[in-house]
Amino acid sequence: MKELGYSSIYITDEFTEDIETTELIGPAIRQQANFMVFEMCQRQDLLKDNKKVENLRQLARDMVVEILYRCKDVTIDFPEIKTFENYLYLHSVNVAVLGVLIGFKLGLKDKMLEDFAVGALLHDIGKLELPQEVLNKNGPLTDKEFDLVKKHPRNGFNLLVSSSFIAPRSYTIALQHHESYDGVGYPSGRKAGEIHIFSRIASIVDIFDALTSDRPYKPRWSFHKSISYLQSIKNRFDTEVFGNFLNVVPTFPVGTEVKLSTGEIGIVFAYNFPNIQEPQIRILKDNKGRNLPKEEFYEVNIAENPALIIEYALD
Length: 315
Hints:
It contains 11 helices and 5 strands. The protein is α+β, with helices and mostly antiparallel strands. It has 2 domains: 2-248, Hypothetical protein af1432 (Orthogonal Bundle), CATH 1.10.3210.10; 257-313, no CATH class. Strands 4-3-2-1-5 form a 5-stranded antiparallel β-sheet, with no helix packed on it. Strand 1 (257-260) and strand 2 (265-270) form a beta hairpin. Helix 1 (27-42) packs antiparallel against helix 2, helix 2 packs across helix 3 (87-105) and helix 3 (87-105) packs across helix 11 (239-248). The longest helix is centred in the first third of the chain and has 21 residues, at 50-70.
């Protein structure tokens, strides 16, 4: 598997075989989005093709409709196994999907969500002008290499702004998604209200998806570790946007094995909507450390037990 570029696979077992998840978008739309982002990035002349851009806009509309239809009872999972070669395209789709959900929670209307989706799908197009040996470097970047990487927002913006068929607020994401609410981002050091709301959303989701993905220089992080890191740098984010991010992204996703404050070990099997941070746990090992046979599994609800705390995930 590693020789093919894969670093992990997903499995189910007797503990999780009856756990079902529903994605924010179905496989058909996701596959179409993956291909369309790939095509647009590889053939940038298509940005000036009205028919192709309209197809992208229609895809964005379909994504928004499906996300808003499913958003009341779905889990936030990014199911594809990314290889280092397809990371850019799948990452862009993930940023669009989760960003649309956050935008909806913030009160953005359908047309704005559509424009956000278009911009998010193309937000990293400027990276195609960077050398692959820099993008996929297996180790820390030198100062010179990082200076090169910091050019990709403006590179992407210049590509998108040349298309008369893409809305200006869509291509602001390419330019500003590495800006920081406290003013320490790049390329312009914008801060707070100087950063478009689309980019304030995308900046959080962009980092989150990168953290939870395998990259040449690091293995993927768990949701728990990634969210803990984001909370440690929350001054870089719009407070309202970050709060809504935490309302839709679970610290402990379905399928995560966790240790409770009682000493019990279990697996997250369901959420309590709308408070997804206090899930339902299936206990697999009791507080004496005994592995339970399947017929003795039992379930506890964190939301109904205020004294019960998830101490950590067993990565």
